[in-house]
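=== RUN LOG ===
request id: a7f3
mode: sequence -> structure
chains: 1
length: 88
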Amino acid sequence: MADEFFDITSAQKSLSNDLPGRQRRYFISMMIRTACFILTVILPSPYRWFALVGAVGLPYFAVVIANAGRETISRGDAVITDKRKNLE
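=== RESULT ===
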């Protein structure tokens, strides 16, 4: 079994520090969706369809945007193995 060393500078933010930002992004996206539904009722016919498309399509993008930045594997992950053991 090779000895592994982890670089602490590449550690992710803790989930408790990351969660409020994700919740804020999702909340803002859902407020925009609510505005799109309201605009669907208020706007005249040609513009109404654009607002409806925004209201229907926004939940997918809201979830993707809210979850952005919490990937488990990132480019900064650094695992250093003891090279001497690989030579034996």
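=== NOTES ===
The longest strand covers residues 4-6.
The CA atoms of residues 13 and 59 lie 25 Å apart.
=== END ===
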